[in-house]
């Protein structure tokens, strides 16, 4: 998860020693690599935050077990962590236990006078879901748009009952080879039209319940044989074929509850050997070409695809998020990381939170 390590490496800066998922990826990539991104305007709510809390809005933490540790709760209260991702061990106790944990974390955010947390998990269906319940089918079995919508809506209701407000789904990859996405049943099909219809209906079902959705893995893993969780992956598709397969992103990658997860694979005809998540062209050229304005989020940076580039140490869960927070804040204060860019990124996060009803009390 240490996107910041990769950004510093790309910018020839000292190596980072932390592991986190990061929101507002596009802004941070642009900052560290000196690329320019279009402005999304000014949000007085973000501008009223201290620099320390603006940085905190970009950090996604995690933890081990079913009970949030005191260190994470303190960081949330201080505004040093703006989002949390729940993994399988966090949700193993079921909906009621998970809701107790998410309520405890949201209470910590409120006690600190902060906006509510984005609390996210992977609830795709099939083999990839953290809570027992909908979606009842794998994506490949939800190709019918009506089925996809119904399952998306049921999934949103389940997640809300557990205190989760962002689903890291649906998968928008179009099957182009017998790779891991196809083998795991995680794609809605091998046609851009079928995938676009079903993925966007699943997303609409989630949004109808007030849960954010995440199209992934931009710009596509349907032609990847191996999983980026295991090893470096290079996708050989032509730029024209990638664009054709990205129909779902053009259709629903711009709603008020939309996020987009950037792939950690490289694309020989787009990014060369550089993982997409750390290539500014993805943000300055490819996303705009597909008319995607959703909030960018990194894929996991604790995977084989990224270890080969970053040579990172193993994650230590919540301590990694806090280390990354401290490093980002120090860079912003020193001017290595543009404070204007930090503000822009935190604005994007707060805009999504506002649409989810997570504004801070004034």
Q: Helical region count?
A: 15
Task: Spell the H/E element sequence.
Answer: HEHHHEHEHEEEHEHHEEHHEEHEHHH
Stretches where pLDDT falls below 50 for ≥5 residues?
1-20, 30-42, 311-317
What is the CA–CA distance across the termini? 33 Å
Largest sheet, spatial ordering of strands: 1-2-3-4-7-8-10-12
> Helical residue percent?
40-55%
Strand content: 5-15%
How many β-strands, per DSSP? 12
Instruction: Give the count of structural domains.
Output: 1
C-alpha Rg (nearest Å):
19 Å
CATH fold field value: TIM Barrel
CATH homologous superfamily caption: Glycoside hydrolase, family 3, N-terminal domain
Shape: globular
Overall pLDDT? 84
The CATH architecture can be named as Alpha-Beta Barrel
CATH top level class name: Alpha Beta
Oligomer: single chain
Q: Structural class, from secondary structure content?
A: alpha/beta
Largest sheet: 8 strands, mixed
């Amino acid at each position: 998860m240490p996107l910041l390590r990769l950004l510093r490496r790309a910018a020839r800066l000292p190596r980072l020693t932390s592991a986190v998922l990061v929101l507002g990826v596009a802004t941070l990539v642009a900052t560290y690599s000196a690329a320019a991104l279009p402005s999304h305007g000014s949000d007085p709510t973000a501008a009223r935050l201290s620099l320390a809390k603006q940085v905190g809005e970009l950090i996604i933490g995690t933890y081990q077990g079913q009970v949030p540790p005191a260190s994470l709760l303190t960081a949330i209260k201080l505004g040093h962590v703006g989002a949390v991702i729940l993994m399988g061990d966090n949700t193993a106790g079921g909906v009621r236990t998970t809701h107790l944990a998410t309520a405890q974390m949201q209470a910590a955010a409120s006690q600190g006078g902060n906006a509510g947390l984005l609390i996210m998990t992977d609830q795709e269906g099939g083999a990839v879901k953290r809570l027992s319940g909908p979606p009842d089918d794998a994506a490949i079995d939800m190709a019918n748009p009506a089925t996809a919508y119904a399952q998306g809506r049921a999934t949103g209701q389940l997640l809300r009952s557990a205190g989760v407000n962002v689903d890291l789904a649906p998968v928008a990859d179009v099957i182009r080879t017998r790779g891991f996405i196809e083998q795991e049943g995680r794609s809605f099909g091998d046609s851009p039209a079928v995938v676009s219809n079903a993925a966007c209906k699943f997303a609409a079902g989630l949004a109808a319940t007030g849960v954010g959705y995440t199209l992934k893995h931009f710009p596509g893993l349907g032609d990847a044989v191996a999983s980026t969780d295991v090893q470096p992956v290079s996708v050989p598709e032509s730029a024209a074929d990638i664009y054709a397969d990205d129909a779902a992103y053009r259709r629903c990658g711009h709603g008020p509850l939309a996020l987009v997860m950037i792939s950690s694979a490289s694309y020989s005809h787009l990014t060369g050997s550089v993982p997409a998540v750390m290539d500014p062209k993805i943000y300055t050229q490819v996303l705009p070409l597909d008319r995607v304005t959703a909030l960018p989020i990194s894929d996991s940076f604790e995977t084989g695809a990224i270890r080969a580039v970053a040579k990172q140490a193993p994650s230590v869960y919540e301590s990694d998020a806090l280390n990354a927070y401290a490093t980002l804040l120090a860079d912003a204060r020193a001017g290595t990381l543009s404070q204007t860019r930090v503000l822009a990124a935190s604005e994007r996060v707060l805009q999504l939170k506002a649409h989810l009803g997570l504004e801070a009390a004034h």
